[in-house]
Protein: Fumarate reductase
Organism: Paraphaeosphaeria sporulosa
Amino acid sequence: MPSPTSPQTAAIVVGSGLAGLSAASQLIAKNVPVRMLERGVKPGGNSIKASSGINGAPTRYQPTHDNAFFSDTVKSAGKAMVSFTQHREILIAKVTESSKDAIEWLVQEKGVDLSKVSIMGGHTHPRTHRGAGQTPPGFAITSALLKSLNSSPIFQLQTSCTVTKVLHSEHRVTGVEYTSENGHREKLLGPVIFAAGGFGGDAEGLLAQYRPDLAGYPSTNDPRPGTQPLLTAVGAQLIDMEYVQVHPTGFVDPAAPSSPLKFLAAEVLRGDGGILLLNGKRFVDELDTREKVTGAITATLPEQALPKQWSVQLVLDEGVYEAARSHVDFYIFKGLMKRSTISDLAPGALGEISRYSQVVRGEEADPFGRTQFAHWKLKEPTPESVVYVGTVTPVVHFTMGGVVINEKAEVLKKDDERIEGLWAAGEVAGGVHGANRLGGSSLLECVVFGRVAGDECVEYIKGQM
Ligand SMILES: Cc1cc2nc3c(=O)[nH]c(=O)nc-3n(C[C@H](O)[C@H](O)[C@H](O)COP(=O)(O)OP(=O)(O)OC[C@H]3O[C@@H](n4cnc5c(N)ncnc54)[C@H](O)[C@@H]3O)c2cc1C
């Protein structure tokens, strides 16, 4: 085992989602060996499931000139901006101003197709990038990074091993303790980049502690314990732990309606023009922030208590279907959506869709303030008009809170001093999104702060030689 100061020192990366993979890519590019530890059987974490895309602005793929990413993010962060204001603004500036480079890095250096751009809730411009083909963006990005890393002899990924402790001396973090696949407790020495994701799947632990009101909600996250306590044990400060994003549209699978684990109905379906109906009526600007759309649903009585869920219809016309075809065909294949007609929707839906089509034609203003209609083209709806429909409900999706980091991805203590030898990136860290994350900004923060953490760790190792 090399000592923490030998030239052969390996950096330890905890978690193989997009934040960990981005950090490892920078380290490997600069010839620093990486030991990546992953608790899952397979790599990729929640990142591999991402289905709408990654934000970037301004980029060559965007159809409009976009200089509003920073201000949209601040607006979406909302009430959280009253505290840690300057700190948050620095992080938001870092993420939004690095977004163009992040997209270029993925496209140019890693060969990922991100040529298709959509608008999502809370954004004033289309800026969420995905590929033009069938491959979902989370899978496309994580598999490209993994493939490149796996081709390096100095990259080592160990799955089925769980980090249980961060080791530290008086002055710095010195490594981790973990349980390996065969159940043995092992120690690994070196600087540590923590990229272990959020706590949206920790229903009985951190979620119950910080948001007991969300008990019983289904989730898009696989069950797993949150890891922030491993970092607070070495002095890390926490922020925004109470801000948990409940995504308005998780599919209620007709084959397993009461499953607590839901498949996400990607926000891009609404971004490309889809609408939401509750008892046959629209009730919200479908492109408002996730917080507001969810709030409009949960202000009504749930249809069932456990899991706590509502019955909202997500409806697309043929224009929206064409634009989001790769997603919808996949959902139809999974039995989560079906091709149908308006006559099959809840009573009153025909009148509602007719009114909405008038709004899209510009004959009247939308009562909910929607101004972007994207690909909706149904002009004269009849009971026989074809629609694509799925039932959706709010789902616990993303945890905005986590450990406090600075713009160098260094983990900060309560006195704002950095913890030497420790960085964090991705959903395990907090502060970037405030009270509400914009769709597409999580993959982005993983790339931006993952790469920053990797670069900083390289400098740290060089400084130790
Ligand atoms: C269904 C779904 C769709 C989404 N779609 C989008 C989207 O389109 N755009 C977007 O921006 N965001 C999206 N998100 C959010 C985004 O995917 C995640 O927030 C982001 O990928 C988190 O990346 P990460 O690297 O921080 O963590 P993850 O990708 O979750 O990776 C963390 C890894 O750490 C491992 N780990 C945890 N604890 C330990 C431990 N103690 N020891 C070792 N390993 C550990 C986990 O097993 C996991 O593999 C989506 C999320 C979900 C669930």
Residues 1-7 have pLDDT under 50 and may be disordered. The chain is about 30% helix and 20% strand.
